[in-house]
Amino acid sequence: xxxxxxxxxxxxxxxxxxxxxxxVGNFHRAHEEYYTNLLLSDPDQAGWGIAGAMLLPxxxxxxxxxxxxxxxxxxxxxxxxxxDEVSRIGSLVxxxxxxxxPEHIIDRIADPKTRIISMTITEGGYNIDRQTGDFLxxxxxxxxxxxxxxxxxxxxxxxxxxxxxxxDAGSGPVTILSCDNLQHNGDTARRAFMSFFNxxxxxxxxxxxxxxxxxxxxxxRITPSTTPADALRLNRENGTDDKAPVYCEDFIQWVxxxxxxxxxPAWERVGVQFTDDVAPFExxxxxxxxxxxxxxxxxxxxxxxxxxxxxxxxxRIVKFVRQFMDIDITPYVPAPPKIDLDQYKHTLIxxxxxxxxxxxxxxxxxxxxxxxxxxxxxxLKKMLADGRDITREAYxxxxxxxxxxxxxxxxxxPFEIAEPWMTDADRRMIESEDPLDFxxxxxxxxxxxxxxxxxxxxxxxxxxxxxxxxxxxTLESIL
Length: 479
Hints:
By secondary structure, the protein is α/β, with parallel strands linked by helices. It is built from 19 helices and 13 strands.
């Protein structure tokens, strides 16, 4: 039976794009676009439509699909109770693709009507050195954009050129709003963009210091990638012919520091929380949700699981995740105001097990080199300093080594890995027959794992057990 699709109840003809979003992926379309689509029902918010910019060559297929639909698409919100809600999203009023119309994107950044530049460019997209915390100015694409400001290819080059024109035209201040899963994501964005501006154009850097704000934010909604099979299923179930459908869980959260230079949408009307300090919310979400996703991903994948809900139907994995949350993480996560931490953790287990969302374990495994420094290492560093039990963390890192090095699961099935930020040094550490070398990978920078005897002993024991008995048998031994 076809599900009814809830239409948006505003005229798109009257919507102006006050936001330029860079990186129009599934998460953005299930999160910021979702909130904004609800808000645009209020006539006084008509100036806060979203123009979407895609910068990568690989974005062509999605761009073409969305352009053919004038930015509209369907979003299926999958309830934990088995009930879905399907909505047509109209808040994406314009889409642009850099290889086709780079000047259009730059003009949008410079346009005085654009008052917020939001972005989802992934954890690794900020180009920050994991050891020093510095912006990497010597990468080839960054060097090219610094030397050729009028022909940008990176997000930093596009934003710099657009802001330079904005500055020259006196078009007013703007806010850069990171929506990526990074602790203190606004601070990270500020460090990256201001470093680029200072290197390319010190006068732009001085202008930005006075005219650009970088609020921190915490975002949350599990949104799987949409496979071709998913698209067929969604269209069949919804009675639609959408070239770019999205589906997601029913939980959603967005907490933002209220620091906007040129005004902002009244997102609080539709459930967004504004605060003076995002840090407690960030710490809770990254340390519990994202860290738990990373924790279960490699052992589950090695054990043959390919869907997260299927892995969470295994009581051993549920117990592993819950022990990690309760024993390893909770002591380092003060509950934010008005949050019941036990209920939050219980809800996380329910969310992971949501069959309707059916997230891919491979998506959780993707780009571990960027995820470990953000989700795992900060708390592991504290645990080592406090002399706490690090069995689960040693097991996770041993499983990650097995995943990267052998590229076959415990059933003998081969697989490809996806680590876009892997360096040549990382490859040498992975290929080495000495498992201690693996601890020097960039994913673990900032924590001297190889010099901690207690961790090394536990890790080597986990490596040996996984090699001999497999990931799941080893997991059983530590539960």
